[in-house]
Write a structure and sequence with these properties.
Elements: H1 2-22, H2 27-64, H3 72-78
């Protein structure tokens, strides 16, 4: 998970720096925007990774322990 957060932060930094440079901002502003973009991208990557891993664990658990589908006809026959 740590590697994905670092990758997300690097991508955010590059996007922030590129947008600052394309806007023609001074170097200190470019660095500031790139750092903020890296922080936001790292936090979003952390959240997305947790959601993704949670879904992966749920799907693996369902594959290990499949539940029998309950049909409405079987319930109606018992009544």
């Amino acid at each position: 998970m740590k590697a994905l957060i670092i990758l997300g932060s690097i991508i955010g930094f590059v996007i922030g720096a590129a947008s600052g440079l394309s806007a023609g901002c001074p170097g200190s502003t470019v660095l500031w925007r790139a750092c903020v973009a890296a922080l936001v991208a790292g936090l979003l990557t952390r959240w997305w990774t947790r959601v993704w891993l949670g879904g992966l664990q749920d799907s693996l658990a369902q594959r290990r322990h499949p539940q029998k589908p309950s049909t409405p006809d079987a319930k109606a026959a018992k009544v």
